[in-house]
Backbone:
């Protein structure tokens, strides 16, 4: 018997051992990868649940605000109108004025909920309308800059998102910032759209948002809304140095509905 034939069983034994070890290592790697994927899936599900709850809370807050506006303004005005009309000596000119005010309040609420200009003319004109409205009602100088949007946004949901971000940011400015000037800049670079709102107000400490009451809740809601679109919201502020809020969202490619066949 030659040396090679005598060593063959031993070589086979070590080869099988190496093979088993290789299989065990691959199995261990697959187990670790599955555990990692399951952990990531659990984290994604938790984040999705948090965003869903946050979206629901934003909707409830908006409904609560609308209900308050209807009760405190329109409801009281209509109640006063009814009382005046029930009097035998009803002052018709005064009643007509109350009715006109109620009608104007109704139109204003409608514009706040969904401004027609957003559907008719798009995001740029809607932001300009929002700026004029803030200037008229709060006495703040609001400048709007629209850059590199010749191709437009072409996404109604994204336009609604960016409009709501600008609206909420301006509401925060009016309520908290004590600012004199605000600049709204909308731009597009490649496949991303960026909206920036900057004011010269009193600013705040972003790391204390959790303790900042209504403003903290509003900014958290804005962050979650942008997150639902796969975008990022950046808040830069400091006491006495104003605030800058930037929303950056990637545009989704439009589906090609044309028939590619000649």
Residues:
């Amino acid at each position: 018997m030659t040396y090679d034939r005598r060593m063959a069983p031993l070589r086979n034994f070590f080869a099988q051992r190496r093979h088993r070890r290789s299989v065990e290592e691959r199995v261990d790697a697959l187990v670790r990868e599955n555990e990692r994927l399951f952990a990531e899936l659990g984290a994604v599900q938790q984040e999705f649940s948090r965003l869903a709850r946050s979206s629901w809370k934003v909707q409830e807050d908006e409904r609560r605000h609308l209900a308050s506006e209807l009760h405190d303004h329109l409801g009281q005005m209509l109640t006063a109108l009814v009382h005046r009309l029930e009097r035998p000596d009803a002052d018709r000119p005064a009643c007509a004025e109350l009715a006109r005010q109620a009608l104007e309040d109704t139109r204003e609420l409608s514009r706040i909920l969904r401004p027609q200009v957003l559907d008719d003319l798009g995001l740029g004109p809607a932001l300009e309308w929002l700026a004029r409205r803030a200037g008229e009602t709060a006495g703040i100088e609001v400048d709007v800059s629209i850059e590199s949007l010749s191709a437009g946004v072409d996404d109604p949901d994204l336009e609604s998102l960016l409009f709501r971000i600008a609206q909420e940011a301006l509401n925060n400015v009016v309520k908290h910032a004590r600012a004199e000037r605000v600049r709204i800049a909308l731009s597009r670079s490649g496949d991303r759209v960026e909206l920036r709102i900057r004011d010269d107000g009193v600013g705040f400490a972003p790391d204390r948002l959790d303790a900042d009451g209504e403003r903290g809740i509003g900014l958290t809601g804005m962050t979650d809304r942008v997150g639902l679109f796969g975008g990022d919201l950046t808040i830069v502020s400091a006491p006495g140095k104003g605030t800058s809020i930037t929303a950056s969202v990637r545009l989704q490619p439009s589906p090609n509905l044309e028939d590619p066949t000649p």
